Amino acid sequence: MSSTGPGTPIDLLAAVVLGLVEGLTEFLPVSSTGHLIVAERLLGIRDDAAGSLFTVGIQMGAITAILVLYWRRLVAAAAAVLRPVPGTPNLLLQIACAAFPAALLGFLCDDWIDAHLFTAEVVAAAMVAGGVLLLWLERKVPHGAAHDHELGTMPYRVAFGIGLFQCLALVPGTSRSAATIAGALLLGLSRTAAAEFSFLVGLPILYAAGYRLVKQGQVLQGELLLPFVAGTLVSFLSALVVVRPFVSFLRRHTFAPFAWYRIVAGALLGLGCAGGFLV
Hints:
The protein is mainly alpha-helical and 279 residues long.
């Protein structure tokens, strides 16, 4: 977690609020990490091992919604690994190619990122910058523009290129979804394919963090267990509600509402930091 000072432990109400924030924002291009940092500070959540593991849990809750919604595609891709069709990219290998750059960079720089970038000031700047990027993206790749690839035809080199864009999301406030969608659109995917691939490429990234639950799960025993389970469940259910409507929205609309939301929210957050309301 990212709050500073002694703070308070996570109770059931705080767990539900944070789970809802995570589930509603993980797959939208608005930065779930940024929203969690702000929510934690407003709730006074203390910076400790339990808080850090709680964040991992609710992120895994959100990404599990993708397994539920896209399991048929993933099972078909797994079966195709055993019976490959020449000239047809495999979805699992596409995901692996896209996940590799961010996974490697995150492994090498994780401690430095935690120590230097998890601040409200960085989140505010990244929120505004990401909003400007989305507005620029709408001019560069306007709605209805021709595209070169769908998921079924996307070359592995394009998947790897999307993974390089995903590395931008290691900066809190950038948004993994925004970074991967922007990269996918610039590299020739349709809007629907870009959004869906951004969901799927999160599977190895977020589940890989689950090793911390295996290593340090005893921290969540006792009175912290119920808030942990509740927050993870709320995150899962709220993510289920968000994903399909977001894809449908992109078929008919632009990213402009998300861009302006980011710019306004980032500016307000910056003012809050300057005024000492978020320390």
